[in-house]
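# nightly structure sweep
# worker-07 picked up a monomer target from the shared queue
# config: single-sequence mode, recycle default, output format = structure tokens
# input follows
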Amino acid sequence: MLARVWSASLIGIDAVQVGVEVDVSGGLPKVIVVGLPDAAIQESRERVKAALKNSGLIFPLRPILINLTPADLRKEGPSFDLPIAIGILAASEQIDPQLLGDYLFLGELSLDGSLRSVAGVLPIAAAAKQMGMTGLVVPEDNAREAAVVEGLNVYGFNHLSQVAGFLCQPEDCAPAEFNIKAEFNRQKLGIPDLKEVKGQNHARRALEISAAGGHNLILVGPPGSGKTMLARRLPGIMPSLSFGEALEVSQIHSVAGLLKNKGTLIEERPFRGPHHSASGPSLVGGGSVPRPGEISLAHRGVLFFQKLTIDNAGKS
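# output follows
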């Protein structure tokens, strides 16, 4: 039997819909994954097999062909574990496949069937709404992050067996709820405040002008004179992020995997201070599958470099 489950892959900070097609036929047991999967997806065969067995479900001992569409798009990461497992359950007639076309699935599986959080859920949730999906099924740890997107039902689960139960009886599960205004407008704590600085009148004035006009700023002085201390207080005097700006920043950090322990939205302007020996790719991002660098992570915030060298020709 053939089953199709919807998932998504990231290209930069944009999400692309990916179909996970699973065909279970007759013959000797084997599992084949096609559609330009990376090593993590190839290894998902073993994770999914163990997760199904340890969840009280059946892993069919028959030929299983898994196709990730579109075939010319490179896919990577463990987030396809859950859609592959659901596709196998549907193709082997262990769950009702009627709802599979309405939901998008993401999640990494442990060997005991529990779901682990994945990176990039926020931009995928925004894309799922644009795709017209009814809902998004993710690990419980990613549910609040995905629920930021309005108009999309988000379901968070801790175990594969719970997802299987949801697909059999969806009316028994309620989507995650998120009060956007209350969460975004809560009191912001922990931002270094410029009022704590005593003296440094010229530097304080330069910071205020830089923040007001969006100008670049060079701080010159011997070590220990307060350059880094002052720079860290620049985001605190910049205008607060609007909700749209916070969503932009949060999507970038979600792709980079930096939202797992930071709630749902980044509400303060980011401050990034890479080491002066940081490589070019770590600053500008990139790679075979593009990932944000320090410049992108400082979007709508402050990018601070510790040192600036000038050669004899006067070129920096």
